[in-house]
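Chain A, query sequence.
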Amino acid sequence: MKYHLFRIKRYDPDRSPSVWWDDFKVKMEPTDRVLDGLIRIKDTIDGSLTFRRSCAHGICGSCAMKINGKNRLACQSIIKNMPDRIVIEPLQRLPVIKDLVVDMEGFFEKNDLVMPYLINDEPPPERERLQSPEEQHRILESITCIMCGSCTSSCPVFWSDKKYLGPSALLKAYRFIFDSRDRAQDERLKRILHSHGLFRCHSIFNCVEVCPKEIDITSHIARLKRLALKKGLKG
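Chain A, predicted structure.
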């Protein structure tokens, strides 16, 4: 075990100053995760430190935060891959509630705008609605999104345009627009084709670099653009 310095950006609206940095020296095993260090700090050093966590296995996306300048999941960030000094901040450009906890309400509202659910008014079959392996493979990568917000928070377009749908919502739109069982393709395309929608993506690839599930989000958005152009639709 060796000591690592956790430098954490803090925020408390009831304190003055409301923003400050705290340093904590924590003894860590190489196989520990950054999340383990945060839990150790909260349990043994400063119980007021506030952050989100849940599954701790890279499934729920709760512990997304900025670690050493890059959006990551704290539960997937292994200490042996980290420098001795670990700088932790909340996801950027999202309203901070306290310390590392950000307000995700606006993020989820944008996902809701694309109707993130299967729409099919045809008479249901006796069993499930089938699709071929090829049809399922087309949406397979997009299904693995855990909606952690890392992609949208890292997007420069979102930084300058808070009304921009963002890569997460556009990926969610892709997931259903290209689902062979869905029947609301045109309606969803209309919902993402506006001045803060699909064609605001500049293919910067920040979303791809930070996605904890390694989804090629930019390529999915590019396919949406090609489909919209093929249908003669404009943003």
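The first strand starts at residue 2 and ends at 11. Residues 8 and 38 are 10 Å apart (CA to CA).
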